[in-house]
Specification:
Chain B: This is Peptide ABC transporter permease. Chain B: It is a multi-pass membrane protein. Chain B: Belongs to the binding-protein-dependent transport system permease family. Chain B: Keywords: Cell membrane, Membrane, Transmembrane, Transmembrane helix, Transport. The complex is a heterodimer of chains A (317) and B (293). By secondary structure, chain A is mainly alpha-helical. Chain A has helices at 2-29, 34-38, 45-54, 61-73, 87-122, 127-138, 144-158, 175-212, 215-222, 227-249, 251-265, 270-280, 283-311. In chain A, helix 5 packs antiparallel against helix 6 (127-138). In chain A, 37% of the residues are buried. By secondary structure, chain B is mainly α. Chain B has one domain (79-285): MetI-like fold. In chain B, 71% of the residues lie in helices and 0% in strands. Classes of the chains: A mainly alpha (317), B mainly alpha (293).
């Protein structure tokens, strides 16, 4: 077990390192490099040189890379161009909101996707099954901001059931604060779940149909186990594993969706931060946000892999 | 967004006896016919945009009008016609979607085939593909688009460059199956070079998978372009569906002017759904298990 965990963690670290290294060099090879972005037009050459020196951008590329990596390991992502504040602090301020949003969407997708997928598999060809297939295919065509705006206009602005922006009502205390938190979370989470649910439930359905045809299910039937027990206990256990892997692979898409939905709902997470930073051309914040999101996604993916190993009886650790 | 709708490519089919009838059968399916029709209308809209509507620019007197005979899709807070914006946006979406998916296809097919046939390349290619598939693509594209000045060309390059891993994975898995087939061994025994085997023997066997990939990658590219434009990273000189949504977001008219967000959203939905359906049905139509051999 320990060996598996270590090797999986090592793979995650390697992935992040490759990503950071390749993007570092890619960004400096691109035509519009950060130096030209940062230097304002009306500066004297002396001022430009001084500014470049402050940020260490006058040194050779290789030296920049080494010092960048050294700083990164210590958790230093540089200084924001616009807010004179360390990028790490700015992002850590916002990251919990994104984790809450994406995490809730992840859990809810699984919680709702399992019953839908299983029921569709058991009632193959019936209306629920057909509806799920249509929904699963069209989910590919759903654009997160469109879904988010639709929810915002209908449930937020028209019906007034949910707040149309923000993450919490600052005047609430205690239990009220938690309720306000959940209330603000509903629409952003829903916009992510609607996009993720179709493919997830569809995968679960396909696995379930395959599993229900296996010999051990027939054996369970011969032993007199009820249909309910066969499907929900014996079948689901085996069908859920590939669906879990799919969710792990979809984490990147989930985070991308979170960036978009946060922008629509002015939700104070990393996604909204990226949107603001793009508007202000705050380049270190954008790069830092990508690194933090990449680290989060890669390690969350490693965690789902470990969970897979724990849940799968065929892998003995 | 980029849901893996194709988990398993259909097994390679034997050279079909009559190619024409299989195309005919494919196009006769109602969903396919409808999808192809939608795609055709979109292409015509993109090509003839200047004849359909004037390029929206400047401010007009009719501000925030709901849809009417004069303005089919209503007007935005500057008084610009939303219908004209959607029509002109079709150009950007189609051009970027198609060009980016062709880049992804060229890269993905080359890498996928090389990995399938040449063992040493496979190890490296698989690591790179895995790393790229593990990363959050949208934040990655945002980072690059923010540094270069966004234009139709740079957006196409960025989106195309990050869409190839999915194509490479599909082509590689198909290529591996074909590499193991007896006729490849036969070609090797006859003294064919690796280059010849890959280009003359394996490549033709993955062509139909490439057609599917173009459609699916193009639909993902359209969504990516819309996402980047919505975040303010679109080409400032070209109309785009994502930019219409961004304008509504920036001017705070989302809750009032439903027409400003509904119509570009429908355009994205229709285009992507049509491309996805056409691609998936094409994949199904090649599957001998469904066609009864």
């Amino acid at each position: 077990m320990l060996r598996f965990v270590l090797s999986r963690a090592l793979k995650a670290v390697l992935t992040v390192w490759i990503a950071i290294t390749s993007t570092f060099f890619l960004l400096r090879l691109l035509p519009g490099d950060p130096t030209t972005l940062m230097v304002e037009g009306d500066m004297t050459p002396e001022m430009q040189a001084a500014l470049l020196k402050t940020y260490g951008l006058d040194r050779p590329l290789w030296e920049q890379y080494v010092s960048y990596l050294r700083e990164l390991i210590q958790g230093n992502l540089g200084i924001s161009f616009r807010q004179i504040q360390p990028v790490t602090d700015i992002i850590l301020d916002r990251l919990p909101w994104t984790l809450l949003l994406a995490g809730s969407a992840f859990v809810l997708t699984i919680a709702v996707g399992i019953p839908i997928g299983v029921t569709a598999a058991v009632n193959r060809g019936k209306w629920l099954d057909r509806a799920l297939q249509g929904f699963g295919i069209s989910a590919n065509a759903l654009f997160v901001p469109s879904v988010a705006i639709l929810l915002l206009v209908f449930f937020g602005a028209q019906l007034g059931w949910f707040p149309i922006g923000g993450a919490i009502d600052p005047d609430t205390r205690g239990l009220g604060a938690y309720l306000s938190l959940a209330h603000h979370l509903v629409l952003p989470v829903l916009s992510l779940v609607l996009v993720q649910l179709g493919p997830y439930a569809l995968t679960l359905r396909t696995n379930m149909i395959e599993v229900l045809g296996e010999d051990y299910i027939r054996a369970a039937q011969a032993r007199g186990l009820s249909a309910r027990r066969r499907v929900w206990k014996h079948g689901l256990r085996n069908a859920i594993l590939p669906a879990l892997t799919l969710m792990g692979l979809q984490l990147g898409t989930l985070v991308g969706g979170a960036v978009l939905t946060e922008t629509v709902f002015a939700y104070p997470g990393v996604g909204r931060l990226i949107y603001e930073a793009v508007g202000q051309q705050d380049y270190p914040v954008i790069q830092g946000a990508f690194i933090m999101l990449a680290v989060t996604v890669v390690f969350a993916n490693a965690l789902t892999d470990m969970l897979y190993a724990v849940l799968n009886p065929r892998i003995r650790l | 967004m980029s849901a893996p709708v194709l988990t398993e490519p259909a097994p390679p089919s034997a050279p079909s006896a009559s190619k024409r009838s299989s195309w005919y059968g494919y196009l006769r399916q109602p969903t396919v016919a409808l999808s192809v029709l939608v795609l055709l209308v979109m292409v015509l809209m993109a090509v003839f945009a200047p004849l359909i509507a004037d390029e929206p620019s400047g401010a007009g007197p009719d501000v925030l009008q709901s849809p009417s005979g004069a303005h089919w899709f209503g007007t935005d807070d500057l008084g610009q016609d939303v219908f004209a914006q959607v029509v002109w946006g079709t150009r950007t979406s189609l051009v970027i979607g198609l060009a980016a998916s062709l880049i992804a296809l060229a890269l993905g097919t080359t890498i996928g085939l090389a990995a399938a046939y040449f063992r040493p390349i496979d190890a490296v290619a698989t690591v790179i593909t895995d790393v790229m598939l593990a990363l959050p693509t949208l934040p990655l594209m945002i980072m690059l688009a923010a540094v270069v000045s966004p234009s139709v060309v740079t957006l196409t390059l960025i989106i195309g460059f990050f869409a190839w891993p999915e194509v490479a994975r599909l082509i590689r898995s198909q290529g591996l199956v074909i590499s193991a087939m007896p006729y490849i061994d036969g070609a090797r025994v006859l003294g064919a070079t690796g280059w010849r085997i890959v280009t003359r023997e394996i490549l033709p066997a993955v062509v139909s998978l490439m057609i599917v990939s173009v459609l699916l990658t193009a639909s993902r590219a359209v969504i990516s372009e819309a996402g980047l434009s919505f975040l303010g990273l679109g080409d400032p000189d070209a109309w785009s569906w994502g930019r219409i949504l961004l304008n509504a977001q920036r001017s705070g008219t989302i809750a009032i002017a439903w027409w400003q967000t509904l119509f570009p959203s429908l355009a994205i939905l229709l285009l992507v759904l049509a491309a996805t359906l056409a691609g998936m049905r094409f994949n199904d139509s090649r599957d001998p298990r469904r066609n009864g051999g």
